[in-house]
UniProtKB/TrEMBL annotation:
Coiled coil: none annotated. It comes from Capsicum baccatum. This is Pectate lyase. Keywords: Calcium, Lyase, Metal-binding, Signal. GO terms for molecular function: metal ion binding; pectate lyase activity. Residues 167-364 form the Pectate lyase domain. It holds the Pfam family Pectate_lyase_4. Belongs to the polysaccharide lyase 1 family. One of its GO terms (biological process) is pectin catabolic process.
Length: 440
């Protein structure tokens, strides 16, 4: 009996040691993964030297290829954390896996500001300010907005994280002109900006627009509109874009649903840069996204935009996006509908398409993903490439330029992220339905 007792105690001791070793190893791995992710998020970007005689822009990044590689690193880290079981609800989408598994997301709303990737990854919005609760959906006076309205919130001179008291439909009389360091956060309620003017982001910085429905935007203008507590002025006619980004930087547009506007759903022009457009759901529109003002406006050479994890859905025709000049990383998006083409451009933009899923329409004359507004003798020198994309129903991407040149070298590892995963990466694109006390 004594022998069996000693043997039993020895086995128990051995099991205890093994449990302690396993826990220590797991804890160390989790800590290392967390530190690696935080290191990625906290690194900074310098100013990029513009080409030829184009003026410098303080928010253009020094090396766009490095940012593309950082996007890939975030995707890899997110996938590895999911494999290790750190997030039971993880999808491999690094933005969503950064915050959506938190049941207390409503108390930790500002964590979202740590989760952007790509060229707009440094957009902090109103992270460093107070919360502002919108209680009134009305927009009776664009010059003297009432406290509690969305317009009163976005024009303030201080950082603000703007949330909504309840579900609401906001019909704007004139453009909603945003001031710098603002977050519009529609999580937890159902907010529509619809049937009137929509959002203008002009000559500002650090804007996050998250979790709202934007649709049926109409041209407005020839009116006085306030843009800050101390300034209002005459606005000429606006085109009716869903979100118009004009001469602005550090902009992140994430998890919104956009449809059926008079002009573009999202347009970024006039030297805008450091932009990420992610996790959005686009439907029922002709000219979806314009990135670049005109072929002659060379200041748009500083433009750098990441387009990631979006779903380009039913009823879309063209411009997903349409690019000029600049540098555009199109990664892990789901293109399920287009009538003319998906990605277009002019004025020699650099377009890096990686890990997307392209489903061509039935029309045999619209199978090509790409469209160039130039003669082939000119566009054959533009750097456009497809790497790891999934082409369905006869879809094809016409590459050009230096497909294997140094301009793509630091982004080549992204091909390892299979386009077969695009369905799960984009399955929750658009405005989310989030409820207190539950994972969003």
């Amino acid at each position: 009996m004594a022998v069996y007792s000693r043997l039993y105690l020895s086995l128990c001791s051995l099991l205890l040691v093994m449990v302690l070793v396993i826990n220590a190893t797991h804890g160390h791995s989790a800590e290392e993964a967390h530190e690696q992710f935080q290191s990625l998020k906290n690194s900074t970007m310098g100013s990029r030297l513009s080409e030829e005689n184009v003026p410098n822009h303080e928010h253009a990044v020094d090396d766009p290829e490095m940012v593309v590689s950082m996007v890939d690193m975030s995707i890899r880290n997110s996938t590895e954390r999911r494999k290790l079981g750190f997030f039971s609800c993880g999808t491999g989408n690094p933005i969503d896996d950064c915050w959506r598994c938190d049941r207390n997301w409503q108390r930790n709303r500002k964590r979202l500001a740590e989760c952007a990737i790509g060229f707009g990854r440094n957009a902090i919005g109103g992270r460093d300010g107070k919360y502002y609760v919108v209680t009134d959906p009305n927009d009776d006076d664009p010059v003297n907005p009432r406290p509690g309205t969305l317009r009163h919130a976005v024009i303030q001179d201080r950082p603000l994280w703007i949330v909504f008291k309840r579900d609401m439909v906001i019909t704007l009389k004139q453009e909603l002109i945003m001031n710098s360091f603002k977050t519009i956060d529609g999580r937890g309620v159902n907010v529509h900006i619809a049937n009137g003017a929509c959002i203008t982001v002009q000559f500002v910085t650090n804007i996050i627009i998250h979790g709202i429905n934007i649709h049926d935007c109409k041209p407005t203008g020839n009116a006085m509109v306030r843009s800050s507590p101390g300034h209002y002025g005459w606005r000429t006619m606006a085109d009716g874009d869903g979100i118009s980004i004009f001469g602005s930087s550090h902009i992140w547009v994430d998890h919104n649903s956009l449809a059926n506007c008079a002009d573009g759903l999202i347009d970024a022009i006039m030297g805008s840069t450091a932009i990420t457009i992610s996790n959005n759901y686009f439907t029922h529109h002709n000219e979806v996204m314009l990135l670049g003002h005109s072929d002659s406006y060379v200041r748009d050479k500083i433009m750098q935009v990441t387009i990631a994890y979006n779903h380009f859905g039913e009823g879309l025709i063209q411009r997903m996006p349409r690019c000029r000049h600049g540098y555009f990383h199109v990664v892990n998006n789901d293109y399920t509908h287009w009538e003319m083409y998906a990605i277009g451009g002019s004025a020699s933009p650099t377009i890096n398409s990686q890990g997307n899923r392209y489903l061509a329409p039935a029309n045999p004359f619209a199978k090509q993903v790409t469209h160039r507004v130039e003669q082939s003798e000119v566009w054959k020198h533009w750097n456009w490439r497809s790497e790891g994309d999934l082409m369905l129903n006869g879809a094809f991407f016409t590459p050009s330029g230096r497909g294997a040149a140094a301009s793509y070298a630091r982004a080549s590892s992204l091909a390892a992220k299979s386009s077969s995963l695009v369905g799960s990466l984009t399955s929750n694109a658009g405005a989310l339905s989030c409820h207190r006390g539950y994972q969003c």
